[in-house]
Structure formats: C-alpha cells, structure tokens
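Checklist before submission:
- one chain only
- standard amino acids only
- sequence pasted in full

Submission:
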Amino acid sequence: MTLKPLQDRVVVKMVEAEETTKSGILLAASAKEKPQIAEVVAVGPGSRAEDGSLIPVDVTVGQKVITSKYSGTEIKLDGVEYTIVKCSDILAVVE
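Returned file contents:
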C-alpha cells in the first residue's frame, strides 16, 4: 500500500533521536525529545491559488526536513509510522 498526499500535504518519516548524549550518557526513552527531523516520503501536487493556478510544494522526496514540534497527523501503515504535515509546517530543509 502506498500513500499519495493531497493538495499541499507531505508524508514524512521521523528520523530517530539520538540515544546517547555527546558525553556518552545513555538516555532513557522518557528523556528523549520528540524528533523534529524527518525524511520526505511523498509529496502532494500543491495548493491552488485564487486564480486556479497550481502552487507546487517546495520539498521533494528524499530530502531531510525540520517540522514543527507537534504538527501533523501520525499514522501507521504496514508497521511503519509516518506523519502527514502541511507544507507550511515544514520549517527548513536539512542539507
């Protein structure tokens, strides 16, 4: 099964947070912050302007992005967790 987002929605897969600190201390699961860096899995066609023209989404599949901390809708498909976010909830592209 595949996901095809509509309008300006983007499907992302969160990148796992670090399990150890820089000094080597192992973090418990409850101490980890929710990850904000994600990989783009699928991109919708974009939104429509008032004149009907298509405004494309700024990201492409495979890019790593930073999302708003508590944005999107989390879903589980074939045992994999994804988040569907609006393009406006993507704050930056990680290069």
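Reviewer check: The mean pLDDT is 85.
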